[in-house]
Amino acid sequence: MKHTHRKFVRLGFLFMAIAVGLGAFGAHGLKDLVEEKHIEVWETAVRYLIIHASALILLGLMHRKFDEKKLNLSLNLFILGIALFSGSLLLLATSEIWAGEKLTFLGAITPAGGVSFIAGWFLLFLKGFSAEKDNGGISSLDKKHSSSRTHRKHRHSSNKSSSDTSTQKEAPVME
Q1: Backbone dihedral region for residue 137 (phi beyond 0: left; psi -120 to 50: alpha; all else: beta)
Q2: Lower CB density within 10 Å: C or N end of the chain?
Q3: Measured between alpha carbons, how far is 48 from 165 in angstroms, rounded to an integer?
């Protein structure tokens, strides 16, 4: 795995851990501090954090199947989306606690994060995925598996032919 993609995977793991912690806090700690509608905002932020943390992990692990530049741009758009979308919603849901008032201007940041998520997904849809093909039109992975199957088949048939010759010899007859 390329070094850059390891960073995305590790960051995805970190975001996932943060999401679990935030989800637990939202389920247990916030319910006595904020109104129900703020809990729903919190849950939306955590849900999108989990979705895009998962995307960072999975796409980072599958990086060989994608155009590297477009994948890196998409993953960076997901990170930006996490910060803007989930971050602004988390702050908005709790602003009455830490700021003493509802900071509604934070809601204006959220759509920019959503656009970042959408742009990242569309980039992957339009240009990101590219199966590695060699000159014969077979992916390098398929070619590797095919050659190992051919090798096993050849080895098996050569073992079979040598055992066939040994069974063709006549056993000595005892009288």
Answers
A1: left
A2: C
A3: 66
